[in-house]
Amino acid sequence: MDKIILVFDGFCVLCNNYVRLISKINPSKNIFFTNFDSEFINKNYPDIKLGNTVFVIKSNNQILNKSAAIKYCLKFLKINPIIKLFFLICPNFILDIFYNIISKNRYKLFGKFDTCNVPKNIDKENILL
Predict the structure, then answer these.
(1) From the CB of residue 101, how many other CB atoms can be counted at a distance below 10 Å?
(2) Least packed by Cβ within 10 Å: which of 38, 44, 51, 92?
């Protein structure tokens, strides 16, 4: 099973909730989580910086962002097959339009934490600090 690293905005309430959900519905526990401020990212992937996107680092070190990153994670999640199929067949450029709107307004819409963090109620083995 591929090891996947999901890099997210630790300040963003929406992103933290997304990480919590992914952790909960990933039965194989092959998705690992870290935020942009982590020592792991600064040491191993210094070019990845906080922006208006989530990143996924695949086991072959290929880096995906925006809807491509989300779609890749969907393959490993236990969710409604119809919802999964919809996202997987929808072209990235269409999903990216909605992704960009939400990501640029995420703090206004969902809130922002004062400090960068990782959600507390996910498996500790799946957190890369």
Answers:
(1) 11
(2) 51
Torsion over CA: 78, 75, 64, 102 (sign)? negative
Q: Could you give the 3-state DSSP secondary structure of residue 62?
A: coil
The Cα–Cα gap between 91 and 81 comes to 17
Taken in order 14, 49, 78, 91, the sign of the CA dihedral is positive
Parse the chain into domains and list their residue ranges.
4-126
- Phi first, then psi: give them for residue 13, nearest 5 degrees: -65, -45
Q: Whole-angstrom Cα distance, residue 87 to residue 103?
A: 17
